[in-house]
Design a protein that fits this description.
- The chain is mostly helical.
- It has a domain of 80 residues.
- It is 62% helix and 3% strand.
- The longest helix has 23 residues.
- It is globular and about 65 Å long.
């Protein structure tokens, strides 16, 4: 009976872990639903931890690697050998990614000390280890970060070091400006940097509200063209400089769905006509509707996909499906007084970004956190892929800070 119960907990934990990964990759996830799922995952893992002799099967699949690593960390096994902690990370590929996720969600008490031997000996794991230390807010020696940033032959490590520094509120803006400020004079500078490194540096400036990005970021995207990549384009849209609208419109021809997503992040009232045009095209109609909802907070009206002109609605084919109705939607743009940029039907502000970040997970939650950081002009100290309950507690504290600041404004 005990064996059957443990297997039931193991299956349920594995299912919850896989479901969580799927949801985090989706565009929009209800934060309440994710919270309930994560509670189930934690419940089943807790039951496995209580079975002190149970270690689980030898990992052959990513979810098994996650469970194995999570159990090691949850048990706080200080007597465990270094190899017990490090072996899952040496597996490489999806297996190592799953173990990294376990250690990010359930970090050991001293992740710097435990994983430093691996950082020193396994060069291929240095970038993901920096990412882990970033997510767990593990203090690192300045010399280690400086050495990683100087590794010009390892773009992934260099970018990881910049991302770590970007999320550290104690880091000023100057280390990041060194990478993108030359773009003011020479746009071709962007071509001499790996895109991942440039994006990481721009992210550091973005989190600190650096106005220089209003010039440098569009110049980088224009210089790189399609090679700019989706992260840099996303950052351009989040930055929201008025001059960026035309650059975003140029993305429509190459990737209409992604262009509509960018328009949503951009959020300026000037792109209303672009979204309506996107809804009228089959390849981008749903993405344009999602962007409309992101900006206005309104669910776009829909019509039958194969509607017959002047026909009785009851006579429409039952299996034709529905699509957004751009003619009706065009009349629903909110009249937010004096607002050039909107989020969920309200002027973009720290308060509106906080509410959105508290309501959604998935990419929408990630984007809302980025907008909140932009409005606060500081790193939030939050892991977008961490536990949703922890994020919401921190967001409640942020909401209280925003309220106090509004009272004293």
């Amino acid at each position: 009976m005990r064996s059957l119960l443990l297997k039931s907990h193991l299956r349920s934990a594995a299912d919850a872990y896989r479901q969580r990964g799927l949801w985090l990759s989706q565009a929009v996830v209800d934060a309440d639903a994710l919270d309930r799922l994560e509670q189930r995952l934690q419940l089943h893992l807790g039951a496995l931890v209580e079975a002190t002799r149970y270690t689980g099967p030898e990992p052959e699949k990513p979810h098994e690697a996650f469970l194995k690593a999570a159990l090691v960390s949850l048990r706080c096994d200080s007597a465990a050998s270094a190899e017990t902690w490090l072996d899952p990370l040496r597996a490489g590929g999806a297996m190592a990614e799953a173990a990294f996720e376990a250690y990010a969600l359930y970090p050991p008490a001293n992740p710097g000390d435990i994983f430093m031997p691996l950082y020193e000996t396994e060069s291929a794991l240095r970038a993901p280890l920096l990412r882990l230390w970033q997510r767990t807010q593990t203090p690192l020696a300045e010399g280690l970060l400086n050495a990683a940033e100087r590794q010009n032959e390892d773009a992934a490590l260099k970018a990881a070091a910049l991302h770590y520094a970007a999320e550290n509120a104690a880091t000023g803006v100057e280390p990041f400006r060194a990478y993108y400020l030359p773009l003011r004079q020479d746009a071709s500078h962007a071509e001499r940097l790996p895109v991942t490194v440039l994006e990481a540096a721009c992210w550091g400036g973005f989190l600190r509200g650096d106005p220089e990005l209003d010039v440098c970021l569009p110049r980088a995207v224009e210089a790189l063209g399609p090679e700019a990549g989706k992260p840099l384009l996303r950052l351009l849209a989040l930055q929201g400089a008025p001059e960026s609208a035309e650059i975003l419109r140029q993305c429509v021809a190459g990737d209409p769905p992604f262009a509509m997503y960018l328009m949503g992040l951009y959020g300026h009232t000037s792109i209303k006509a672009d979204l309506i045009a996107g809804m009228a095209k089959a390849e981008s109609t749903e993405q344009a509707a999602a962007a409309w909802h992101w900006i206005t907070g309104a669910t776009p009206a829909r019509k039958q996909r194969l509607a017959v002109v002047d026909a009785d609605p009851a006579a429409q084919p039952a299996d034709s499906g529905e699509v957004p109705d751009p003619d009706v939607v065009a009349e629903t743009w909110p009249e937010a007084a004096g607002a050039a940029r909107l989020l969920a039907g309200q002027p973009l502000s720290a308060a509106s970004a906080q509410r959105t970040a508290n309501a959604y997970a998935g990419r929408a939650g990630h984007d809302a956190l980025a907008l909140l950081a932009r409005e606060r002009t500081t790193p939030l100290g939050l892991d977008p892929e961490g536990w949703i309950a922890r994020r919401r507690r921190r967001l409640q504290e942020t909401a209280a800070d925003i309220g106090k600041e509004a009272q004293h404004a």
